[in-house]
């Protein structure tokens, strides 16, 4: 990194709390609320939670530390950070891979945020407690109405663009420091209500009862692995981007690693306390996934005393969880593109949000397409991005360099040499295993074929584009590199 | 589907809940409080003396070892700069962020 680059003006988080909330807000999404409690219950309850906890500490916490540390050390978005590590050339294209995966992820996540917005609006209108309300028909009616789904998708992307236009400190930080605590409070209030219902204990027994035999099943560990890695957002470029806005004296291991991974998982646990007592008290199917949230739970609000209030609390919290994730995921693209082009932040926000809006149209119009994209990118795209980031740290930069230069710099806790082999060998091996596992499981299916297309085309495109672009003179960086404010 | 047999809140379930609460919420709250307090302490030191020691004794020893063992490393200049800055801060300020003893600080030398 040249001295002039190092001195480039860049936004910073106003407070450490803002950084922490951005990290947790980015990682806590809709999956934490409906997926974690159910997956735990189906895979041995307490046995699953033990496996999950082990994997969080062994993989997610060290991995997140690496990603945040790289972001803080370089002070750049994903492509700029890769350039600092690999030097100019085609390998910078690995940063493009992370960017492409991130935008692809957001293209189907934005319409899903639109679903939560639609339900949040109707919870405020009291629709769910109205006479003759049918939950299944309501969801089907929404999904079959392209005007509605596109409108919600559009409002969501406009909202995200609006916040991002305000910048890191004035926009993102202001939203997350309110939204994340509000989400926690809403789940806590619902948990208190749920635990007072008759039959609530069955929900707790389902999620937390230990079935020891599951601890020795590979399926338990694979499910726990997916939950530990994907729910923490490791390797998506989020932690790197959020870390790039850290102040020089901020700490990486405690906030960027331990608090982020465990805090995010704690919200999943809170969701178990909030939702599953209600699910069991009303005899709902805990394995219903999205249907649990958008159909089953909706049906029980009219049966609760103060149902409008509980419905409102739940869906507003649910929307906040989804929206904050979308906000920070989109910031990855905005930061990176603004650094790599001559565009101002305003132009970049509009361009990136516009691109995501366009790419999100198929998912907004078809829930089946959304599911398909989620599976393809979740199974191959995200492990590929993680492999790119952690691989570059482990095999190009070298974990020992990052550990002594950044991880332990101003650190709240000391990180020893044990961290190096985890970053260099364990996490990349796990990512290769995940991709191989899904390839075998889905062998010959359209999902697997498209997964292979992603695995091949993204790196080739990234390498090709950056090999060409890096051979040309780069434009001088402007003062407003990223962040937009401050 | 739900197990048709009613699930019971046994002692084992209560124990799991207790462990989960400590392992997740306990650790998360501990990390949150500790890191926010450390930030307050850092801000206080920065306001009082304009700079703080950036490495703990163990971390600085690792940094020194890296510099000494890798003289040709492309990152060694940055590592040396960070090491020297920390040493200068430790020798030039009265209050430290990490637990440095006077003897430890006296033994430090620039690289």
Automatic annotation (TrEMBL), chain A:
Signal peptide region: none
UniProt keyword terms in alphabetical order: Membrane, Symport, Transmembrane, Transmembrane helix, Transport
InterPro entries cross-referenced by the UniProt entry: Na/ntran_symport (IPR000175), SNS_sf (IPR037272), YocR/YhdH-like (IPR047218)
Keyword Transmembrane helix part of the UniProt annotation: yes
Its membrane topology: Multi-pass membrane protein
Any one GO molecular-function label of the UniProt entry: symporter activity
Pfam families tied to this protein: SNF
Residue intervals passing through the bilayer: 17-34, 46-70, 91-110, 147-168, 174-192, 228-246, 258-284, 304-329, 349-369, 375-397, 418-437, 449-469
GO cellular component, one term: membrane
Localization of this protein: Membrane
PROSITE patterns reported in the protein's UniProt record: NA_NEUROTRAN_SYMP_1, NA_NEUROTRAN_SYMP_3
Domain of life: Archaea
Homology family: Belongs to the sodium:neurotransmitter symporter (SNF) (TC 2.A.22) family.
Protein's recorded name: Transporter
Lineage: Archaea, Methanobacteriati, Methanobacteriota, Stenosarchaea group, Halobacteria
TrEMBL record, chain B:
Family annotation (Pfam families): DUF8026
Protein name: Uncharacterized protein
Transmembrane segments: 13-33
Organism: Halalkalicoccus tibetensis
InterPro entries: DUF8026
Keywords recorded for this protein, A-Z: Membrane, Transmembrane, Transmembrane helix
